[in-house]
User: Fold Crotonyl-CoA carboxylase/reductase from Piscinibacter gummiphilus.
Amino acid sequence: MSETKDLYELGEMPPLGHVPARMYASLIRPERYGEPEQAFKVEVVDTPKPGPRQVLVYVMAAGINYNNVWAALGTPVDVVAARRKQNPAAEAFHIGGSDASGIVWAVGEGVTNVRVGDEVVLSCAMWDENAADIQAGADPITSTSCKIWGYEENWGSFAQFTRVDDYQCFKKPPKLSWEAAAAYMLVGATAYRQLMGWEPHTVKPGDPVLIWGGSGGLGSMAIQIVKAKGGIPIAVVSSESRMEHCRKLGAHGVINRTDPSFTHWGRLPDTADAAAYAEWMKGANAFRKKWSDVLGSRQGPRIVLEHPGESTIPTSILVCDNAGMVVICAGTTGYNADVDLRYLWMRQKRLQGSHFANTEQCKALNDMVIDGLVDPALADVFEFDEVGKAHQLLHTNTHPSGNLAIRVNARA
Ligand code: NDP
Assistant:
């Protein structure tokens, strides 16, 4: 065996299976909470050890997601304080990163699904398989024990090594680069559950589907999943270049939400204020007409893939087809959204919350990527010392269309 060290430079591969005592990590400390560009800093920390049913992965590349914009800001949740409240011995720092590709480097007791040397991609949900709700048959992703690795849990992928549970490991699509492989699982599996996880509202051939933020990470995945399932994806974006991105991914049509006739975004006016309400409806009806023009039919979307929340929920509820579903996984623009309940009950619509995905859904999405039905839509790759810069672009909505990745141990 070649000589071993206790710290390796990025990209300098230790002998397979040798776990150095220390590693580089781009991490957040509470004293740096604020703009992502300042919050992340490369430091050296101890390498975590895998416990029973845990896997240590040598990270080749990491994906960038919106959750670590929140982590950097320290709001709405102070992730370090939240962990230390539950466990005072928890680390005083946060290693984010909820997407990765890499090589299995060490396994804990009882791991049977992967072996040292396997090339894997990682999913981001962790749960306690012994939790009472899971033992009683609950979908693990709905368990009270469920946490997001690299956000609620420490030891995410912005580090040379990351620690996950064994069921988080999936086969790396052989044809993809490390960077592309790191970019799709979190958004792809989330979109998959939103679109395929809520029977009877799953995408069927011919179903029109409205996708907010079509050029974003989630949207780019959603367009391709809807198309692959035979549905009709119609995306909403805020610029010409983003419209083009959606068309290339297979969108049937695209709506530019900056159209000046759409004057109705945000909270609903009080229905008692007739003039304000009429003005709101005017903007919303202009959007509804645009939808019909793009679809070529007056049918509303059978599924609306939501995440902006506050600014768009009133529109989503209005335009959704009778007995259709608005399925939401975030509140990108705010959490206090208004729902005009009249449309919900009279037209028998469904407003469904959805959060990441279970193991079967991750595998189904991963198989679509392996089969070439979903492309990771990798837009840009950053170096390890640019984790903050990449999150800053997300924070200011100035990132390129598609998904972003960070090179960790992979070299250009
Ligand atoms: P991106 O930043 O890639 O995309 C977000 C998109 O939102 C942008 O492209 C932008 O598109 C759109 N947007 C911004 N402001 C508005 C607005 N006022 N009205 C309508 N659309 C707007 O993020 P992701 O796609 O990766 O994630 C989207 C959200 O989903 C985030 O909040 C993220 O945290 C959450 N999420 C939740 C998951 C879960 O499991 N619960 C998993 C994955 C993501 P444009 O300006 O072109 O309209």
Observations:
- The longest helix spans residues 274-295.
- The mean pLDDT is 97.
- Residues 65-67, 186-187, 190, 212-213, 215-219, 236-238, 242, 257, 307-308, 311-312, 329-330, 332-333, 355-356, 394, 397 surround NDP (CB under 6 Å).
